[in-house]
Amino acid sequence: MTDLGALNYFLGIFATHRSTGLFLSQKQYAIELLARAHMTNCNPSRTPVDTDSKLGPEGVPVHDLTLYRSLAGGLQYLTFTRQDISYAVQQ
After folding, report:
1. What pLDDT digit, counting tens, does each position of 18-66 carry?
2. Which of 9, 13, 19, 81 is least surrounded by Cβ atoms within 10 Å, i.e. has the fewest?
3. Residues with Cβ < 8 Å from 25, sequence gap 6 or more?
4. CB–CB of 33/71 below 8 Å?
5. In 3D, which of 41, 22, 46, 39 has the Cα closest to residue 74?
6. How many Cβ atoms are within 10 Å of 33's Cβ, its own excluded?
7. How far is it, in rounded angstroms, from Cα 72 to Cα 52?
8. Bridge partner list, 80
9. Using CA atoms in the order 38, 44, 49, 55, what is the torsion angle rounded to 10 degrees?
10. pTM for the full model?
11. How many CB atoms lie within 10 A of CB 29?
């Protein structure tokens, strides 16, 4: 085993060491995920999910199942440092 020094970046997660603690960020990963979904110019909303809406089988079919699965998995991975979006991702 080799000591590579202080942790700065690992598996898409940036680590910042401060006197108050260790802070994790996936900002760059989130930006890349938005780019893959062609959503970099979308506007944010106040809440990550419509709490009254439920998805059903009558929706628009997915054209690229591989991309859909990749984005869904990417969003689940993003919840490691963004617990505030966990509910929306699981819906």
Report:
1. 999 988 888 888 889 999 998 899 887 776 566 666 666 777 777 888 9
2. 19
3. 13, 14, 15, 16, 81
4. yes
5. 39
6. 20
7. 21
8. none
9. -30
10. 0.66
11. 19
